[in-house]
Every structure is written in C-alpha cells, then in structure tokens.
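Tokens for chain A. Residues wanted.
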C-alpha cells in the first residue's frame, strides 16, 4: 500500500501518564481520594483515614497479584489508577533482584547489572499498570534542592527521589510532571521547570503552568 501524506489531529489532550511528587504529608494522597473512579494502590499504608477505591499492598507479590486481577477482571475497571508511591515499588524491585541474584546489595553485581535489573522491573510494572487503565498516576517523594558552592553556585533542583537513571526513565515516559506544594492554605501543582524544580508537560493546557490542585485543571473532562 502506497504511503499518503496526511496530517492528523492530536489523539489525546490529558496526560496518560502523570507523575506527581512533593513533600510527605503535603496532601497528594488526599487529593487522589477525591478523583472520581480512581483506584489508589496504597504501598505505604498512608490512606487508612481516607475514603475511596483503595487497595493496600505490602510487597511486590501482592502488587503483581493485584495487577493480574485487574487484567483478568471483565467487570472491575478504573479510569484512573494511582501508584502511591513509586518509591516503595522501586524498593520492592530492588529486594527481589537481590533475592533472585543471591546478593545482599545491587552494588554486589558487577558492571551495574543489579541496578539495570531493578530499573527493568520498575519499568515493566509501570508499563503493565498503564495497560489496565486510561490514565496512570505515579506518586513519589521529593529529593530536596540544594546548592553546591565552589566558585560559582550550582543549584541541584528539587526532583523525584529516585536513582538517576530510573528517575530519568520515569520522567521521560511521563506526559506531565507536577511538583505538589502548599502556598499558604492552597494546594498547588507546578508544571513549570526552573532552577529549583524539575517539572514540565507535553499537554498544552498544563505546559509551563502553576495551578491550584484541582483535578478538572489537570484532566479537562474530570468532575
């Protein structure tokens, strides 16, 4: 079949993979509980006082069993699924690699093999959960910004608290990266990158914006 030159319209407006990170207890999980038709996969048992679709998981096996149940279910579907938090999922992946390879630490495996295996497990987990929902939300902790002052000051921006390569993989896959913070009593999300914060968005309605944290500002059709 001969190829034809044809311009298409955008397929999606809202982020299919949304990364949110910020300080502990800032209100990320509470906001997730307010998102209609969102399953919160609670890896840190921090949602016990919240009402919503919440599935606590305590280890990697429970996480994968939940994934299988979601894949096989014909009746139970969620428009949104939140992995809360990616930090714990990475921790479980690291422990599983050590168990499978018979080592105490990822560093015990030569040439960075252990870190590569851990990244692969986390990446496959994200990919698999993306396949069972329209919109996947990854929630993580922050790594605080700091400055290195040797001659000229260099600011290391506030970012997702993950190892370098894994952080870069998750961020590059995300359609939008939001930093969650409080300004007085108002919870906000920044999709605006600067020297102090790593953030951004491919979605036009979020690109370069600092917004009040309301779901209808992020998912344009959500209520």
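Reply:
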């Amino acid at each position: 079949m001969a190829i034809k030159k044809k311009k298409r319209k955008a397929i999606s407006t809202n982020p299919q993979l949304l990364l949110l990170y910020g300080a502990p207890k800032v209100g990320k999980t509470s906001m997730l509980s307010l998102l209609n038709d969102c399953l919160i996969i609670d890896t840190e048992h921090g949602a016990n006082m919240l009402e919503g679709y919440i599935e606590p998981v305590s280890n990697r096996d429970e996480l994968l069993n939940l994934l299988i149940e979601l894949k096989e279910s014909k009746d139970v579907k969620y428009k949104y699924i939140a992995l809360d938090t990616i930090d714990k999922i990475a921790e479980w992946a690291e422990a599983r690699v050590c168990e499978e390879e018979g080592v105490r630490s990822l560093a015990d495996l030569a040439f960075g093999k252990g870190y590569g295996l851990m990244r692969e497990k986390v990446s496959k987990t994200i990919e698999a959960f993306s396949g069972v929902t329209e919109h996947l939300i990854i929630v993580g902790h922050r790594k605080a910004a700091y400055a290195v002052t040797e001659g000229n000051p260099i600011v290391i921006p506030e970012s997702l608290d993950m190892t370098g390569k894994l952080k870069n993989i998750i961020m590059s896959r995300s359609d939008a990266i939001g930093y969650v913070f409080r300004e007085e009593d108002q919870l906000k999300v920044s999709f605006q990158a600067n020297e102090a914060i790593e953030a951004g968005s491919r979605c036009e309605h979020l690109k370069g914006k600092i917004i009040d944290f309301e779901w209808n500002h992020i998912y344009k059709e959500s209520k």
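The radius of gyration is 19 Å. The helical segments are 28-32, 60-72, 86-101, 113-130, 164-173, 215-218.
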